[in-house]
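ok so dumb question maybe but i'm new to this and my supervisor (M.) told me to 'just get the structure for Mur ligase central domain-containing protein' and walked off. so i did the thing. is this what she meant?? sequence i used:
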Amino acid sequence: MKILTRQSILPHRPTLISSIGFGVLRKLGPKRWFSAHSEEPELKELMEYMDSLKNYEKVGVPKGAGTDSDDGFDLGRMRRLMERLGNPQSQFKAVHIAGTKGKGSTASFLSNILRAEGYSVGCYSSPHIQTIRERISLGRFGEPVSAKTLNCLFLQIKKILDQAIEHENGRISHFEIFTAMAFTLFARENVDIAVIEAGLGGARDATNIISSSGLAASVITTIGEEHLAALGGSLESIAMAKSGIIKHGCPLVLGGPFLPHIECILRDKALSMSSPVVSASDAGNQSTIKGISRMNGRPYQSCDLVIQIERDFKLFLELPDVKLCMLGSHQLQNAATATCAALCLRNLGWRISDGSIRAGLEHTFLLGRSQILTSKETEALGLHGTTVLLDGAHTKESANALVKTIKMTFGEAPLFLVVAMASDKDHVGFAREFLSGGELEAVLLIEADIAGGKSRTTSASLLRDCWIQASKELGIDIVHDGTTKSGEVFNNLLVCSASKLENGTILDAESSLMASLKATNQILRERAGNQSGIIVVTGSLHIVSMVLAALSS
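this is what came out, is it supposed to look like this??
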C-alpha cells in the first residue's frame, strides 16, 4: 500500500404502549431536537454562566484528576454543592454506568428498555453533539430536557449555585454544576429511576455521589487506554478508578470482555463490597449477529440474544431475531450489557418484561454511532449518490470496532475517511487500526474545535504526520511530494494520483470540513467509478457535530 500525502421497587402500573413513544421519537428525528449548532436563545444566560466555569472537556483533564488519590477531583466539593440543593440524588433510584467505551450506548439501551416498560426515566450522559440539552433526558419517551425547563431550573437555583461557587473559591466546574442540575431535575420530575453515565473514571467523578441505598446497580462496560494520565497511567489504575462506582451490597454488571487480571481487579473490589457480579461476557451468553438487512433505507443487524448467568444471580433470557439499529459487534455487546442490567433489576423486583427488553433494544438509536445519513442529507452536503457514515470513534479500540462494522455492513466497498481528533488521543494507534484493516482509498484530515474551544484541537498537519508514522510502523511505503504546494496544485495532483495509483492511499490535510468532503468526493469519483463508495467521518464526536450542524444550517 502506498500513501500519497500533503501536508424500592415500584408498584405495578399500567404499561404505556412503547411503540407510540418510539414512533414519535423516530418521526421527530435528529433535526427536530438538534436543529441548531448554537444553543437556543432561551438558554443564553445559562450558557454564558456555564462558559464562565472551568470546563475540562474543553481544556483537558489534569494528571491524576480521576484517581482516588490526593491528585483526584475533590468529591467533597460536589457533596457540599448537593447538600445546598437538598441532596436531590437521594430521592430516586439509579443505575450508575462507567467504562472506557460503550457507556453512552449502554445507558441509552437500558433507558429505552425501562421506558418501554412504562417507567419514567431520567438519563444523564455526556458529551453532547449539538445542544447541551442532549445530556439530560426525562420521562417515558426520552426527549431531551426542554430549553424552558432547563432555564427555569437554572433561574430558580442560580443563587444557590453562586453561593456554592463563592464558598469553593471558584473551583466548581462546568461538569459539576450541570450534574447537579440534572440530579435536581430528576428529583423534581419524580423519575422512577435514573440511568447515570460517569464522566471520567468513577471514584472521583462528580456523578459518584449516589449512596448504596440509592444505587440499584452499577455497570462497568469496558476498560481501555484512554485518559491514561488523568486515571493513573495504566490499565490497572483505570480499572481501580472505575471500580469506585461499586457500592456495598449493590449488584455489579460487567460488560467486557476484559483482560483476566483487569476483571480480577473489578471482581475483587466487588467482593470487598459484598456486591454480586453479573457478566455479559460469561460463557453462557451466546449472542450472535446473523446478518445485515435494511428497513426504510437504513441498515440494521439481526441478532440472537441469549443470556444465561449461573454465578451470583441466576438469570436467563432468549430473544431471537432482535433488530438492532446500532451496528457492530461492540453494539451487540453493549446491548447484552444493558440486558444484563435490566435482568438484574428484574431480579431485584422491578417489573421488566422480555417484550420491553426487545422493544428498548430495537428502538435505540444515537447520533454519531455508526449513523448513516439519508440520501437527502448526503445531497445537501454535495455528495449525491454517496453513502456517508458518521461515527465518533476516537480510540484504537473504537477504531478497530468501526473497521469491523464497516466491513460487515458494506463489504469491500471503496472506503474514504474524513478525520479530526482531540489532542489527547492516541493518533498513531487510531491510524494504525484503519491502515491495518484493509485498503483505504483516501484519508482527509482536518481540525475540529473540541467542546467549543481550540485548547484540545489537533492540527491537520500533525495528524498527517501521525498517519505517516503509523504507515511506517506497518511497513507501508510512503509516497509524498516532499514540498509545500498550494491547495490548487495538490488538488490537481490528487486527481492525477487517484487514477494512477491503483493500490495507493491518498493522505491529505485539508483546511475545513466542506473542503475535505469536496476533495473526498472528487477522489471517490475518480477511483470508485461506478462502484458505490463509503465516506466515513470519524475521530471525534465533535467532527460529527460539525457535519450535523452543516446539515441544519
